[in-house]
Amino acid sequence: MTASTRSVGAVLLASAALAACPDDSGPPMSDPTDSATTSSGAVTSGGDVDTEATTAGEPVPEDRPDVPQRTRVERLLAALDAAMYGCPERAWPDVADNYRTRQVVLTSEADDLAWVWNDQSGEGTPPVVTERELGELPDEWTSYFNVGELDGVKSLGISLDQTQAQNDWWLNQGGILWPDFAASLMFHEGFHFLADQDDWSAGDGSRSAPYPEPWEPRYLRRQLIQALAAELEAEGSAMTAAAHWQARLQSEYAAEMTAIRSYDCTEGSAEYVSLIMSAIAELGCDAADADVLALARSHLPDGLFLTDGSVFDSDLEPYELGVVAGLLLRRAGAAGWELAVEKGAAPADQLLDGVVPAPQPDDPAVQAAAQEVVAARNEAVATEIEPMLARMKDPTYTRVAVRFDWIAGSFGVGGFYYLADDPLQSEVMQSFSAVFSTPSQVTIDVTEQTVLTGVATPCALPQGYSIVLTVPTAALTITGSAATSTDAAVSFAALAVEPTMGADNLPWLCPIEAGGANGAPAPAPGNLHTLRHGDPPLRARVRVDPAG
């Protein structure tokens, strides 16, 4: 198994949601009904009662014939008990209080059930688990993962169905599954959102790759990662080589390294914590640190936390650098390195500080591989970005500006890019899919459309929050101020809008709930770009809040 599903699947989807939640909270969720049942210790899953006692930090071997086998849900809840309640400070300092006052919601559409771990309103010895009917929760909690509030408590939702599909795919490819994808996701995203990573001062940056993308930085970053991985295998063998590749990156691509450093801190630490928590969940809170490190290192060849070197992807680099540099810093017993990460000192930068580089020859084979991979990616990305740029200039399309923080739950994206040849270096999200919910709960469905983001529009919404969708004008109907789109890629019904024209005399729709058209002129009657009017629009799909 050489491929990593993090390349365009789990990691991009997961990390995208961090960008989607600038206030790290999401909309408050309505209270569930009182029909929920609570339990402490043993939990149920699909009607099967777990007869084994599971205590945080005391995992029960799964291979003992005299021990009842736990269901998947029970194993995941036991992992949470140990790693995120029993001893989360074993993975990262000063996070225990946050974890112990937050919740994780495991959801299964197949079973129509949800398990609220560490339910803050449940009775019993914490961490209490509450089993509920999934239909009691808002739709957002069926997302791949979701961050929001449940019963007024910051909570992380994880889909058992979608993560099981990843498990199945990985196993069908011949991969070694460790840990369960649900576990790695809840530990990674839990660190982002439940441990208050938004309080860090890691600085601003961008995870976007340029389009078209040069191959050289990907080659150098891959050489750095491989050198640190070699140092993990044989202590003292590759630190000076790693310092060489790091020095080249900082001298030859200083601007890109500055831009990506904050993600080396945030994503790198979250992936490192995910790996360490996975080991702690298996070994228990009383395990020696050497054993935790050994177990974590033993699973790096599996490909889930570290690829084999054939992947040259700027999105993956912060994750993998965080894993290898974090393990090396932990092995070295470096004091206070985690706090330094929180203040913007990337793990690899700390690790290599003061290491004298030893000159290294370039590897022609790796260079050729990097060129081939990046060239193929540029070609593939062009098939998404170039049509989007054409639509942005096409008078038969209408541009619709929406707010980033209207995204409900997580979203999918094939890659983050910026237009290298654009003086403004406009940001692009490739193959973007999401469900938006406006404050009045009008739903906008976006499926696999490449979009511009964070760009200026003729609408009133702040530039930093903007996502620009493109819709064939023929698929739009406007009645009064309500717009409906029947386009397969972008659909909505009864969206309150103000039509306007951009500086290039092309049509835009500005949602009124995002501030409207900012005083820009509306399309003139009879203009080529005038939107089609017709019968009353389809009824808006509205989620009803039982709290009113």
Please give a structural write-up:
This protein has helices spanning about 10-20, 70-85, 95-100, 160-170, 180-195, 215-235, 240-250, 255-285, 290-300, 315-330, 335-340, 345-350, 365-395; strands at about 35-40, 45, 50, 105-110, 115, 130-135, 145-150, 155-160, 210, 395-405, 415-420, 425-435, 445-455, 465-470, 475-480, 480-485, 490-500, 505-510. With about 550 residues, the chain is of the alpha+beta class. The relative contact order is 0.11. The protein contains 13 helices and 18 strands. Keywords: Signal.
**Distance between the terminal alpha carbons, to the nearest Å?**
51 Å
Give the % helix: 25-40%
Portion of residues in beta strands equals 15-25%
Largest sheet: 6 strands, mixed
Summed over residues and divided by their number, the pLDDT gives a mean of 85
Q: Give the oligomeric state of the chains in this entry, treating copies of one chain as homo and distinct chains as hetero.
A: single chain
Keywords: Signal
Organism: Nannocystis punicea
Protein name: Lipoprotein
Region (Disordered): 20-71
Brief rundown of the structure:
With 548 residues, this protein is an alpha+beta fold. It has helices at residues 10-20, 72-86, 96-100, 160-172, 181-193, 216-233, 239-252, 254-283, 289-298, 317-332, 337-342, 347-352, 364-393, and strands at residues 37-40, 44-45, 48-49, 103-108, 113-117, 128-133, 145-150, 153-159, 209-211, 397-403, 415-419, 427-437, 443-453, 466-472, 476-479, 482-486, 490-501, 507-511.
